[in-house]
Amino acid sequence: MPQSIRSTTAARAAVFAPLAGGGRAELVAQRLTDAIELGLLTHGERLPSETEMARQFGVATVTTREALETLRERGLVETRRGRDGGSFVTAASRTESIDRRVRALSRVELRDMGVYYSAIAAMAAELAADRATDDDLEHLHDTIEAVDATSETSTRRGEGTFRLEIAALSQSARLVREELRLQAEFAPLLWLCLRDQAHRERSLAAHLEVVAAIAANDGPAARRATVGHIAEAIEWLLDAKADLEGQG
Fold first, then answer.
1. CA distance 41 to 205
2. Could you please report the per-residue DSSP string of the chain?
3. Which contacts (CB < 8 Å, 24+ apart) does range 132-138 have?
4. Which residues have CB under 8 Å from 241's CB, separation 6+?
5. Per-residue model confidence as pLDDT tens for the chain (248 residues)
6. In order of start, what are the domains of the chain with their CATH numbers?
7. Ramachandran angles phi, psi of 79, nearest 5°
8. Which of 87, 187, 199, 242 is most solvent-facing, going by the fewest CB within 10 Å?
9. Nearest-angstrom CA–CA distance, 132 and 178
10. How far apart are CA 195 and CA 48, in angstroms?
11. Which of 229, 246, 242, 243 is CA-nearest to residue 114?
């Protein structure tokens, strides 16, 4: 499989992969915004230079310059001058905006989004069970062990990274890109359950269950574990929506 979608680099490779829809600045800005909001690009992290980013995205340098200007206007990036300068991520909490999105979407819309996300993630897990190597399994365990279950931020970032790693092991660049797109669109809502310690612990246990199925080359079991985990999160989300609506 191409190195660009190996599990060890899946998250960042997906963020900076060449754009398929043309070299428009808004596409670059949206890709970077999604990555920041998902926690793939973290607060204080320095982005590649305009020239390097243009090379990675396959666009003109002026395009990345315009995209960074858009991110500065949104308060997601700040640019510093001097020897240690560059463009740095300055992401803030999105709790209130996420709650507003949950209120705005209907139960049918939330469940439908969950079903689609589950289908993509489950297919990736099933394919990974057929294609993962011992090194890949070791890396998945390292990814899980790096998560601090006492921290919502750490667990949320770990959830997104784990899903991208599994998508990468499917050896499908399209699945990786779709996983990244769906994470940006829906994962911030789906994984609201990670506000609770019990669900953070359940998330890690579910990941271990998926990895065990992949290690056993049991695709159906990897699919079932993935679907079950996401189904729990969807039910929690629907309950949370009811609570938010009850609060007015």
1. 25
2. --GGGSGGGHHHHHHTSPPSS-S-HHHHHHHHHHHHHHTSS-TTPBPPPHHHHHHHHTS-HHHHHHHHHHHHHTTSEEEE-STT-EEEE-----HHHHHHHHHHS-HHHHHHHHHHHHHHHHHHHHHHHHH--HHHHHHHHHHHHT--TT-HHHHHHHHHHHHHHHHHHTT-HHHHHHHHHHHHHTHHHHGGGGGSHHHHHHHHHHHHHHHHHHHTT-HHHHHHHHHHHHHHHHHHHHHHHHHHHHT-
3. 132/169, 132/214, 132/215, 136/7, 136/169, 137/211, 137/214, 137/215
4. 102, 103, 105, 107, 110
5. 333 334 445 556 667 777 765 568 888 888 888 777 766 787 888 999 999 999 988 889 999 999 999 999 888 899 988 888 899 998 655 566 677 788 889 999 999 999 999 999 999 999 999 999 999 999 999 999 999 999 988 898 899 889 999 999 999 988 988 988 888 788 888 999 999 999 999 999 999 999 999 999 999 999 999 999 999 999 999 999 999 888 86
6. 3-89 (1.10.10.10), 106-246 (1.20.120.530)
7. -115, 130
8. 242
9. 20
10. 32
11. 229
CA atoms within 13 A on the CB side of 152: 10
Look up tokens 């640019």; give the residue.
79
Q: Dig out the tokens for 227 from the structure.
A: 């679907």
The one-letter amino acid at 71: L
Question: In the numeric block, which tokens belong to residue 215?
Answer: 């290690």
Location of structure tokens 């579910």: 206
Both tokens of 127, joined, read 């394919």
Amino acid at 74: R
